[in-house]
Design a protein that fits this description.
Layout lengths: L1 H19 L19 E3 L5 H12 L10 E2 L15 E5 L12 E5 L4 E4 L7 E4 L1
Parallel strand pairs: 1-6
Antiparallel strand pairs: 2-3, 3-4, 4-5, 5-6
EC number: 4.6.1.24
GO molecular function, one term: RNA binding
Organism: Streptomyces calvus
Length: about 130
């Protein structure tokens, strides 16, 4: 009888895992559709300066750089094509850099957030 009970408990545990998924509770590992095919990074894993920039964006500023909030043209074509004005760019401070540096956050009107640390040569979708 104990063997049968153990087997039933193990089967119930397996069923529970299948029904609830394999991710830890409350953690969504699926990337949103707008990030499909792109590398992704969780907001918490971004450099601290990038997280600071996101906080400023969420608060609506004030921004430390004159170009922050400017329309991003997506001339490189690495982000999905959208009408002009859809994307906006924000500087991510680079300690030790004499200028704005190469790091940026680009946001889309649909809530998309992208990070680049190589001045638009590549982008990573930020999961927020």
């Amino acid at each position: 009888m104990p063997l049968r009970r153990t087997l039933v408990l193990r089967l119930l545990a397996c069923l529970l895992v299948l029904l609830t998924g394999c991710s830890p509770a409350g953690e969504d590992t699926a990337a949103p559709a707008w990030a499909e095919g792109m590398p992704t990074v969780r907001e918490a894993d971004l450099p601290g300066e990038a997280r600071d920039t996101l906080d400023l964006i969420d608060a609506g500023g004030p921004f430390p750089y004159e170009r922050d909030g400017a329309v991003f043209g997506n001339f490189e074509g690495l982000l999905p094509r959208r009408q002009r004005g859809y994307y906006h760019e924000y500087t991510v401070r680079t300690p030790g850099s004499p200028d704005r540096g190469a790091r940026r956050i680009v946001t889309g009107r649909g809530g998309e957030t992208y990070y680049t640390d190589d001045h638009y040569a590549s982008f990573t979708a930020v999961l927020r």
